[in-house]
Amino acid sequence: MADLDGQKVAKDYAVDIPFANQGSFHVKGANDLDWGMKKHLSNIFNPESGNTVMFAFDHGYFMGSTAGLERLDLL
Description:
mainly alpha; 20% helix; globular
């Protein structure tokens, strides 16, 4: 299909590598971020429960998943 030419397949979820969540910050993979980004994430995620409400973007519907967003702790 013409819309799939040049698209990379993002299927490597690195499930064999344990998730790096050392530290006391409540958002997984965000322990090494600066204070400002942790403040913004604390406004989005509930610090007590870690829950949030997320709204889906529609770019994944017609372009597929974005490579590299599956495991941000591996970047």
